[in-house]
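Hello Y.,

Per our agreement to keep a running log of every chain we model this quarter, I'm adding this entry. I've kept the format consistent with earlier entries: sequence first, then predicted structure.
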Amino acid sequence: MDAQAEVRFAAELRMFLAPRHRAERHRAGQARVCVDGVSSLGHVIESCGVPLTETGRLTVNGRQAASHDRLASGDVAEVSAVRRPQPVPSPRFILDVHLGTLARRLRLVGVDAAYTNDADDDTLIERANASRRVLLTKDRGLLRRHSLWLGGYVRGSGAEDQLRDVLERFAPPLAPWTRCTSCNCPLAPVRKADVEPVLPPGTQRTYQAFSRCLGCGRVYWRGAHSWQLQQIVDSALGTAVATRRRDALPLWARAQSDGVTGDHMPNHCSAPQASNRPASVNPSFAARRIERALAVWVKSTTGSPGNSPTSQPSAAAHASAAYPNPHASGRNR
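Predicted structure for the entry above:
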């Protein structure tokens, strides 16, 4: 009989288990694996379908272990989920081609999020490594590429859940209304007289405060539907506050709040968010309106936005509340 070891996965990681381990998936994430004395613990974990980017503390027979350690027959390894919030060298991100809506929402709340809709896997990894950005993706195979310096799996099927997941996991600093959702560059206040030639007549009569993208020149102001985007901003800020509060708790208190104890305490926390939506608005209808409002931001853009400068927005831009003008002139990136 082949030598075997047991690998026990935290609840948050069981969704990644490969089909051949689906039976084990329903037994508290316990997978029986063959050991050859050569394969590392990290290789065994990934062979079960779990990217190492999603793992946290590793133990073998109750002792701290590293991904390069080797399993022996009869060993019991335990794999915890990555800590939340996860410390990263710099809270700057690059997103794969399937996460365009998430990229725009991250930019809306001021997070540096590079995105292009035509980058292949090799290009994404090259750009992530060169600019030291965290690669966000739903492609598990991409996260298992050893050439990738740092990445994260995005949980959730919709943009709202995905944004909450990223904010809870990485806790990036937020600066709403300070980035262009089209090209990711910072916004800066601009005099109305400087942009008046490109404003529609109704906008010229109604609005007085404007901002302009320092990269593509797009002009922004608060429009009639800005409350829809403000809901996204308010929810993001609420998530950020809840994440900071939970991170301040000791580990035992986090486990107690989740109703479990032991090494497999869940690190994922979804604090309920208060909604600012008027009571008369249907949730699904409001969601569609929000997505249409966001789509307006890039409607007139040709080509794909590239990576942004690393500079942070100025204090003046920080205070500027901007809303997009789909008819604005200016060069596109």
